[in-house]
Amino acid sequence: MNEQSDASTVRVFIALAPPDDAKEELERELRPAYQTYPQMRWNRVEDWHITLAFLGELPVRVVPLLRQPLVDLAARRAPVALALRGSGHFDARVLWTGIDGDLARLHTLATEIRDLVTECGVAWEERPLRPHLTLARARRDDPFSVPQVATELAAFTGRRWHAERLHLVGSNYSRGPGPIRYRDIEAWRFTGAQ
Question: Residue 3: which pLDDT band, with cuts at 50, 70 and 90?
Answer without folding.
Answer: very low
